[in-house]
């Protein structure tokens, strides 16, 4: 069989027979999935052929092999998007009917993996606005079968459960400041530990004045409310507010604007940190699932060996 460990991206020219061989030899190891995914992405102009063969292989594969093929699909989708939309477009053609049929089957292992992938594809907008249509078509807008509702809400995407995924960051809040855009760019590079450390540093830089900003904001809100009451009372009595009150109102308005600006930066820093921690949890969850899958295969093989020895 082909040694995936010695395979480097782009070493092989594209060949349909080689593609078929790679699909046949694919296993659930991280090395196998990463190597094959890089090879596919390096030949992304042949995405249509790759996805058609992947689809055919999935439909004819055993349940254990389907899990590996799902991880491969996810890895290709996540890591090819930065280079082009070829694989996103082609996988979109086959995934809806394939997953719909899968979720009506008794293949619980594949359904569990596919359910998690659908959650993450939707969260990361891998398919853009079409991702929501995928969920609606499969589940009618409801949660995926067998899905733990806390996965998407509590754990939070970045990282898809592929054991070979490299990096993609999603920010759960709307970025409204230029420095927030810089933060997203800064976090999009580097490996997980580096990105988490960067997020922590950015977070601590921003929260140094958090308590002060919160107190100033609360005080300004309270002051404006009091001034509003004074204005209402003055209007009821037919009198006008003096220039000192108007100056105070203008001053509190400026304080509120400054507080909102500062709190928006803190919100962005907290959200970025949360996103990194969430993605790290998802990555560990996917690796744990991979280890369990490998253990299941190894234990079954060990049972077969024991049975063979008894027959000899």
Automatic annotation (TrEMBL):
Where do the segments described as Disordered lie? 138-168
The record's Pfam families line, in alphabetical order, gives: CID
Name all CID domain ranges.
Answer: 11-143
A GO term from the CC aspect: nucleus
Q: Does the record's keyword annotation contain Iron-sulfur?
A: no
GO MF terms listed in the record are:
RNA polymerase II complex binding
Enumerate the InterPro entries for this protein.
Answer: CID_dom (IPR006569), ENTH_VHS (IPR008942)
Q: Which UniProt keywords apply?
A: mRNA processing
Q: Does the keyword Repeat apply?
A: no
Family annotation (SUPFAM superfamilies): ENTH/VHS domain
One GO process term, biological-process aspect: mRNA 3'-end processing
Q: Report which superkingdom the organism of origin falls in.
A: Eukaryota
- List the protein's name: CID domain-containing protein
State the organism of origin.
Genlisea aurea
């Amino acid at each position: 069989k082909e040694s995936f460990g010695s395979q480097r991206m782009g070493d092989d020219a594209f060949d349909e027979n080689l593609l078929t061989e790679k699909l046949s030899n694919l296993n659930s190891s991280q090395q196998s999935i990463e190597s094959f995914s890089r090879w596919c992405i390096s030949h992304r102009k042949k995405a249509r052929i790759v996805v058609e063969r992947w689809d055919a292989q999935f439909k004819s594969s055993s349940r254990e092999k389907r899990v590996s093929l799902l991880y491969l699909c996810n890895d290709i989708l996540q890591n090819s998007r930065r280079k082009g939309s070829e694989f996103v477009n082609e996988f979109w053609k086959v995934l809806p009917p394939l997953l719909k049929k899968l979720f009506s089957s008794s293949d619980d292992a594949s359904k569990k993996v596919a359910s998690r992938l659908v959650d993450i594809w939707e969260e990361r907008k891998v398919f853009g606005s079409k991702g929501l249509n995928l969920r609606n078509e499969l589940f009618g807008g409801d949660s995926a079968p067998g899905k733990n509702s806390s996965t998407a809400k509590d754990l939070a995407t970045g990282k898809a459960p592929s054991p070979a995924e490299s990096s993609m960051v999603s920010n759960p809040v709307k970025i409204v400041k230029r420095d927030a855009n810089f933060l997203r760019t800064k976090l999009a590079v580097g490996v997980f530990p580096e990105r988490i450390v960067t997020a922590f540093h950015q977070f601590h830089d921003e929260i140094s004045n958090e308590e002060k900003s919160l107190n100033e904001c609360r005080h300004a809100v309270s002051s404006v409310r009091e001034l509003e009451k004074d204005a209402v009372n003055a209007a009821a009595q037919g009198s006008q507010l003096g220039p000192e009150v108007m100056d105070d109102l203008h001053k509190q308005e400026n304080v509120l604007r400054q507080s909102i600006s500062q709190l928006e930066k803190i919100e962005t820093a907290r959200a970025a940190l949360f996103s990194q921690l969430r993605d790290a949890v998802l990555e560990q969850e996917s690796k744990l699932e991979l280890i369990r899958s490998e253990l299941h295969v190894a234990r079954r093989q060990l049972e077969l060996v024991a049975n063979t020895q008894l027959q000899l």
